[in-house]
Design brief:
Pfam families: Arg_decarb_HB, Arg_decarbox_C, Orn_Arg_deC_N. The structure is a single chain. This protein is of the alpha/beta class and about 625 residues long. A hairpin with a 3-residue loop joins β2 and β3. The radius of gyration is 30 Å and the shape is globular. About 45% of the residues are buried. Bound molecules: pyridoxal-5'-phosphate. Pyridoxal-5'-phosphate (PLP) binds near residues 250, 285, 286 and 337.
């Protein structure tokens, strides 16, 4: 089997591409990764990267595919349309994009445009987000939901939005917001539309389970909701209550949790309608998942349902409750952010360097006459390792290494012997790891060896800037070389970034059955070797931080068309060093003044010639204006 030719399909299988790609990514016959777009269009990632590099653009780069984003918006709305038709549901569906998931201009504008005819709206969770949303061109019937905690400014802006002709709904997250809304709507003479976020008993599943339930941060309980209804009735404003809203957390892995939550929310809606409150919208919140590992399970990086099943279950459940309660079927609203944005971008990072046991030349110090017995023991162990005795040798070697450490610390072992002993030990581990590959059954102690022996691929990026969720909450993103996929990857690797933080590493990878501790990669061959990080279009762009002053990365917006194949519509430069430094409260001029003064002093002492002084000045300026990543 070992010698059969490795084909692109084998790579697709190895990296699980058909399982997580949702049809947007594919390994082509040349072993290169390709983006598939509607209308039979496709783009080879390597070609785009080569063009950008030829144009002098530096890595890392985020490639954004607005067509993928538009397609996601369309797919979600169409999925609901189909379900509505199938069940003969009497209301319609209107999606809302919660912009906190990705406020980048191209993202919001693309979603607004692609969703115009579907009446897709936006959701703001802060004043700044509302200011952004109000300026977008969305359909007059599209919703503009205002969530999050609010002050007078937030509420006033929302009310002005209604005067502008926008369908703004203010979601009450807590009781006290009602008085604020009533007071300001009188002051501004605007009739408000309010929604109530209801604290469901139902909980989500997966990592955000605690977002729902009694202890949720947001929402009104049943008594509070009734109080709101009474207040509005007193004010003769019952018809202002236009939406019931719930959100049980992001990345719901189990469809059953969604059904339970939607059933509860619909019962709340139906009770209000029966009590004479003309609620128009039922907003089921976010939570539609992304299958990061492609396993179609309730594992936190996956989901056990499709977008179509989600839409069908939401529509069916709402209808079922409404029919039983004999109330009108509401307009269904959902606030999917992750599922709309995750697929549209690919972060491309170059491998800079490889270090680790299989690459670093083993340097074994010579044997000395008076070598310590413990080193001799290791020497003997290293000489006869077989599949049969591997486990025994491993245990002995580990014990010897421990003894060696103790001896050294007590002053009974020379640095030379320690060096030789460690080198022998490393050699033993490597031989055992080879033997493990031929074992049918791998003993527990040896299971972790491939990880210990994995090479470290140093990549030009910052985990904290570009993949904060991998660092903070262990989100797994598919990672795969964008080329050489017709060659068998022969190394097992973990990835490290270029920050000085030892947390800046990736050592967990997607797998259909488990979480893999290493990623199969190719031996660098002197040419650029690029890895693509996929499905990172949700939350990462926004949550990323400037650890070590690595800034936002360069971005290219890439569009496919029939004539040219593809076209780079826009290149957005990443943050320059100067910007990152100024963010910390420094002024560029002060920095320059300080450097110039130091040069002058050094020059007077004779440490600098005039031309050297000039050169330092130039280098300093170049770096201030430069990209923060390695160039
Ligand atoms: C964050 C958030 C969303 C988005 O959730 P996704 O799981 O990304 O779809 C939706 N609604 C509310 C209220 C949110 O806070």
């Amino acid at each position: 089997m070992k010698n059969t030719r490795f084909k692109p399909q084998d790579a697709a299988e190895l990296y699980g591409v058909p399982y997580w790609s949702s049809g947007y990514f594919r390994v082509n016959d040349e072993g290169k990764l390709e983006v598939d777009l509607p209308g039979g269009l496709s783009i080879v990632l390597e070609e785009v990267i080569e063009e950008l590099v030829a144009r002098g653009k530096s890595m890392p780069i985020i490639l954004r595919f607005p067509q993928v984003l538009a397609e996601r918006v369309k797919s979600l709305s169409e999925a609901f349309r189909k379900a509505i038709k199938e069940y003969d549901y009497q209301g319609k569906y209107q999606g809302v994009f919660p912009i906190k998931v990705n406020q980048r201009r191209v993202v919001v504008e693309t979603i607004a445009k692609a969703g115009y005819s579907y009446h897709t709206g936006l959701e703001a969770g802060s004043k700044a987000e509302l200011a952004l949303c109000l300026a977008q061109n969305i359909h007059p019937e599209a919703l503009l939901c205002c969530n999050g905690f609010k002050d007078d400014g937030f509420v006033s802006l929302a009310l002005w939005g209604r005067k502008l002709g926008k369908n703004v709904v203010i979601t009450l997250e807590k009781m006290s917001e009602l008085d604020r809304v009533l007071r300001l709507s009188k002051e501004l003479n605007v009739k408000p539309a309010v929604g109530v976020r209801f604290k469901l008993n139902a909980k989500g599943s997966g990592q955000w389970e605690e977002s729902g339930g009694d202890n949720a941060k947001f929402g009104l309980n049943a008594a509070e909701l009734l109080h709101v209804v009474e207040r509005l009735r007193e004010e003769d404003m019952l018809d202002a209550l236009s939406m019931i809203h719930c959100h049980i957390g992001s990345q719901i892995t189990d469809i059953r949790r969604i059904k339970v939550a939607v059933r509860e929310a619909t019962n709340v809606y139906a009770n209000l309608v029966k009590a004479g409150v003309p609620v128009k919208y039922l907003n089921v919140g976010g939570g539609l998942g992304v299958d990061y590992d492609g396993s179609k399970t309730t594992f936190y990086a996956s989901m056990n349902y499709t977008m179509a099943e989600y839409a069908a279950d939401v529509v069916y459940t709402i209808q079922e409750v409404c029919q039983r309660m004999e109330v009108q079927e509401p307009i269904i609203v959902s606030e999917s952010g992750r599922a709309l944005t995750a697929h549209h971008s690919v972060l491309v990072i170059p491998v800079l360097d490889v270090t680790g046991p299989t690459v670093d030349q083993p340097f074994i110090p010579d044997r000395k006459e008076d070598q310590h017995q413990i080193v001799t023991d290791l020497e003997q162990l290293s000489e006869n390792i077989t599949v049969r005795n591997a486990r025994e040798v491993y245990n002995d070697a580990v014990a010897d290494k421990e003894t060696m450490n103790n001896l050294f610390n007590l002053g009974y072992l020379s640095l030379h012997d320690r060096a030789r002993g460690e080198a022998l030990f490393n050699g033993i581990i490597r031989k055992i790891a080879k033997a493990v590959q031929d074992m049918k059954y791998v003993p527990d102690e040896l299971e972790d060896l491939p990880r210990v022996l994995a090479d470290k691929y140093v990549c030009n990026f910052s985990l904290f800037q570009s993949l904060p969720d991998n660092w903070a909450i262990d989100t797994l993103f598919p990672i795969i070389p964008i080329h050489r996929l017709d060659e068998r990857p022969t190394r097992e690797a973990t990835l490290v970034d270029i920050t000085c933080d030892s947390d800046g590493k990736i050592d967990k990878f997607i797998d259909l059955r488990d979480v893999k501790r290493t990623l199969p990669l190719h031996v660098p061959d002197g040419k650029p070797y690029y890895l693509g990080i996929f499905l990172a279009g949700a939350y990462q762009d926004v949550l990323g931080s400037g650890h070590n002053l690595f800034g936002k990365v360069n971005e290219a917006h890439v569009v496919a068309d029939k004539e040219e194949g593809y076209r780079i519509e826009l290149f957005v430069r990443g943050q320059k060093a100067r910007r990152m430094i100024e963010n910390m409260g420094y002024e560029e001029d002060d920095l320059r003044d300080s450097i110039e003064a130091q040069i002058e002093t050094a020059r007077k002492k004779g440490h600098f010639t005039q031309s050297e002084a000039k050169e330092l000045g130039t280098t300093y300026t170049e770096e201030l204006l430069g990209y923060t990543y390695l160039e």
